[in-house]
Amino acid sequence: MEKINYAMSSYAVLILLVIALPFMITGCFDNKITDGNKEGNIAAVKKYFNAIDNKAASAMSVLFAADARQDFVGNDPIIGVKSIETKLELALSQFESMKTEFINFAADGNSVFAHVKHTAVFKAGGAVKNRPGITPPVVIFTEPVTVSWQAMASFRFEDGLIVEEIIVRDELAILQQIGTLTVK
Q1: Is 67 contained in some domain?
Q2: CA-to-CA dists, residue 165 to 59, 71, 183, angstroms
Q3: Fewer CB atoms near the end CB (10 Å): N or C, the chain?
Q4: Domain hosting residue 104, numbered range
Q5: Domain total in the chain
Q6: Which H or E element spans position 43?
């Protein structure tokens, strides 16, 4: 069990490095602002996560540019604010509740990096699609299930709107908690 926990911890560290490396290289962790609106962009990212927590998918239309791109690493990107709203509505319909805890933000120029922890309660009758190759392909919950995971998200802004979001989340934690991935 210790080897598996170590491997999963290594996986999480690798994810952190992959998404945080561009921010470290550009020096945004030293709070140097080269251009853009650091506080305004961080406030917009917080509004985004608060809208998710409040199941307000329609708020995306004031946060994202019309042709924005949302990319959950490992999935096909979602293009356009209307498509982002539609996918979010579908995802949020599976939850009784969603809560986001802000762990850390870094901003530089027109970019914001957010490290968050989500806790969601899936509804009884709610469903989640598994990753390709994982059986069963869809999990339907017979009772409410609480799942927590951490995620890193990189946001790029133009003219005060999100034009790109790249999300890396702890898929292993999600799969373990919903029971489709067991550790031996």
Answers
A1: yes
A2: 15, 6, 31
A3: C
A4: 2-178
A5: 1
A6: helix 38-53
